[in-house]
Amino acid sequence: MEPLLTVATFEWDGSDRSWVPGGVRAAASASASGRDHLRQPTGVQIGGGHRQQIYVCPAEPEHPHTELVQ
Questions:
Q1: Cβ(68)–Cβ(53) under 8 Å?
Q2: What is the DSSP letter of 64?
Q3: 14 exposed, middle or buried (CB, 10 Å; 0-12, 13-18, 19+)?
């Protein structure tokens, strides 16, 4: 199985040590209380704030896809 897609609830973990997209870096530093809407611009939430991964079989495309939520 090979990974096909990962959908994450948050783009970054909210800490100052984490990778932060350049376009929101200044806003994130200025407003610790408003970080959630900056970390989650799409509004998509997987499970309880997790990420979902979809896997496919490259050798046999008719094999069912597999998913994993972490």
A1: yes
A2: P
A3: middle
Measured distance CA(29)–CA(32) in Å, rounded: 7
| Cβ-proximal residues to 32 (8 Å cutoff; 6+ apart), any chain | none
Instruction: Give tens-digit pLDDT for 5-14.
Output: 999 888 877 6
What pTM value is reported for the model?
0.64
Domain count, the chain: 1
Other Cβ atoms less than 10 A from the Cβ of 28: the count is 19
Buried b (16+ CB within 10 A) or exposed e, 51-65: ebbeebeeeeeeeee
Q: Could you report the per-residue pLDDT of 42-67, keeping only the tens digit for each?
A: 888 888 888 899 999 999 989 999 99
